[in-house]
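Before relying on records like the one below, remember that each one covers exactly one chain. Contacts with other chains, cofactors or solvent are not represented anywhere in the record.
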Amino acid sequence: MADTQKLIDHRCTCSTCRNHPRSDVAKEHRAINRVLAKLDEKGRRRLAGLLALQGGRGSIEELSMITGLSRPTIRKGRDEVERGEAKAEHTRVRTVGAGCPRIEKNIPAY
């Protein structure tokens, strides 16, 4: 939930949004962030990757400013979109073993 709140509060740092916050470009950037805030981490990564593919050269840097996502995350999303998705990946957001360790592992046996 904290990640979603962070994305909602993220303000685009591009010069257009700073100088002309009511412009069509600024509205588009806010809309992108609203959509990203509703997605899980895999969806955010892949949508940013798709937008990077559509934008062409320099779009990863620009999307990083717009969304607050890191450039390696956007690159990974772009690569996932280009590759497609294997059937086993449909149900998982993270790869097996990724993320925080299970709580049960941290509780010592009595």
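Helices lie at 2-9, 15-19, 24-37, 41-55, 59-67, 71-83, 103-106.
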